[in-house]
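This part of the workshop introduces the protein records we will be handling. A record pairs a protein's sequence with a compact description of its fold. Comparing a sequence with its C-alpha cells is the quickest way to learn the format. To make this concrete, we reproduce a full record directly below:
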Amino acid sequence: MGFCFGGNLARGENPGLAERTPVNGEASLASAVVLTLALLITYKYCYHAAMNNEPQIIYNDSIRLAFSDVDETIAEVYSPAEPGMIEELSSFLQDGNKLFMVTGGSLARVQRDIIDYIDSSLRKDILVSHCSGAEVWGFDTGGDLRDAPFYSIYESIFTDDMKDSWRSIVRQLVDEFALRPHPAQAKTDFWSTIGHDPQDIMLDDRGPQITMEIVNGTNMTQEQRAAVDYSVPVVHGKYDLRAAIQHRSIELFAQAKLPLTPRFGGNFALDFAIEGVSKTTSIQTVLADVKILETVGLNLDDVNNPDELEVWGDKFGVNGGTDRHMSLALPPSVRSIDFRQENPAEFPKGYNIVIWNGKQHLHHGLEEYLQSRHK
C-alpha cells in the first residue's frame, strides 16, 4: 500500500501537501486544479483499498435470531426476492435459526415477495414487523399467516373516523402539491412507464402506514423547482420535495389531532407513520413477550445472549435511515451489519455497527454473507 503512503491518506491525512510550496510563490489555476483532482482520486483509491484490506467479516455461527430490514437488504424495493436469496434464507431457517423481518413496508409486500417463496414448513420460525413497528405477525405450524397480529398499535389507537381523517389529509396533500399518484412498483418500471417528473409519485396505503414514494423529487433541479408554485426546502444540499410535503402534513395532522409523524424512509420515501412507533418498538415488545417468543421456539434465556443475535440492514445513518432503530433496541454489543457503503460517522455512537466489506452490497451483499456460512 505504498501508493497510499502507508494508508495515511485513507485515514484522512494529507501527507506531503503542507510541505509543497509554489515556485516563486506562484502556481497556475490549472496546476492547482490538477493537484486537487489528483488528491481526490488518490483519496478515493486509498479509501477503498483500506476497506478491502480490513479483515473480512466472518459469519457468526452463534446466531439464533436475526433481525433484518427488507427493502434493499433482502430484496429490491417493490420487487420479489431473488432465487439465491430465498435459497439462503431457507437454509438459514432449516438450520434452526429464526428470522424477524422488521420493515417499513407492508405485510402484503413481505408475504408476496419473500415469504410465499419460502417452504411452508419453515415459515413458523418467521416473525414480521411491518409499517415501522405498528404490528407484528407470525405464522402457524402449517405456514399460514395467523388470524390476528400479536399486537396492533394501529387498531388499538385509531378509530374509523381517525382512519378516514388520515386518508382525507393525504388526498389534500396530493391536491395541494399537484401530485400525480401511481401504484407502488419497482422504480425501474416506474421510470420506464411513468417518467421522471418530480410530481409523479407512488402512493402506497399500507393500513398502519401510508407512504409516498417521491421517486423523482429528492434532488430537484432549478428548472424543476421553478416549475412548481410552492417552496421546496434544501435538505443535505439538495432540493427535496419530501420536506415541503412533510412540513405541511405536520400542520394538518396537528389540526386534526392525529398521532402521526411524517418521516423520511429509504432513498425517496415519505412515511406517514404512527407517532412514537419505530422498529425499536416491535423488537423490544417481542423480546419481552414470552408467548410471542414461544411461537418461534425461543424463550427469554435464548434472547439474552448478545452473541446469538444479529441485525442486517442498509440504512443505519441518522440522516434518513431507520435501521439504526433495530440496533438501538438491543444491547450495544450485538453486531449490526450494514450492507450499504455508508459513512460510519453517521452511526449511533457506542453500537457495534460494521460495514460489510465483501464484493457485493445491499441485498446481494446479504446473500454473499449468508453464502459464506457454507465455507
